[in-house]
Amino acid sequence: MTGYTVLAKLIGIFPELNIYRRFGASSAGMLLFEQAELAHREAELRDITAELQTWPDMSLIDQSWSKLNEAEDESASGYLRDKTLEFHAKLRQYQEDLLRIKELHKTRSPAERSLSFLRRWLRGPGRGDDFLEGYEADPWAAGREGDLVGLYDEQSDDLLAGALSKLGSIWHRFVGYRSRPTTDIEDGVGRIWKYEHRHFVLLGNLICVVVSTAVPTASTLILFYVDDMVRRLQLMAVFVLVLAFVMMFMLHCQRVEVILATASFAAVQVVFLQGVNGTRGSC
């Protein structure tokens, strides 16, 4: 029998499935109401203070917190003190809510692969069996992606590794299913295979090494055997573009580094072409 207990166990095993709604609209509504209440309370406090300016002891309580604190509850100064403390309490709560929601919005959205798996698990027979009904199923429903947060930050700026990880389902369909699953039937959450993201990062690094070696090597060989200067310049532009693409989107280099590297690479190619022309001219 599946339910929240089994779902909690699944999330405990795979922390990347800690995916919840942020209730962005409701949070904004709460802040708006608190802000409106504070605006009214601030205006009320300002009016009370203005009315008490003519009171003989106002200068004393304005210069001494202890006198204001010791004022009798039924007195005008006691009323001012109570209203001030109420305002401060509401203001403190408002500021705490502001900071909490600010931190909440800094949290990244969940990885697409994790959200997709969680949805499949909730629907799958022998897994979630669609135990969530009505409004309780809404948090992970289609169309809620923009209102979800992932507490386990697995998002990566490595676009190549992210693209390779999407091929994991193809790998599993033909090869991976033969391996031992991360969880099995006796674990209570069904048979699940997990492929670590670091493996895709490692594969991406390997591809980058191969491409980074192949680009200058291929450019040198091809430019050496091409005689037409216009074709050489065209090929040189293509190789510079490939190098810039690799550095920007595979290696995630800074823009300045990409500009300097491509400029240096182009300069080396120009020198190489001059050397090739000189060598062939002397022959």
TrEMBL record:
Signal peptide: none annotated. Residues 4-270 form the DUF6594 domain. The chain crosses the membrane at residues 200-226, 232-251. Keywords: Membrane, Transmembrane, Transmembrane helix. This is DUF6594 domain-containing protein.
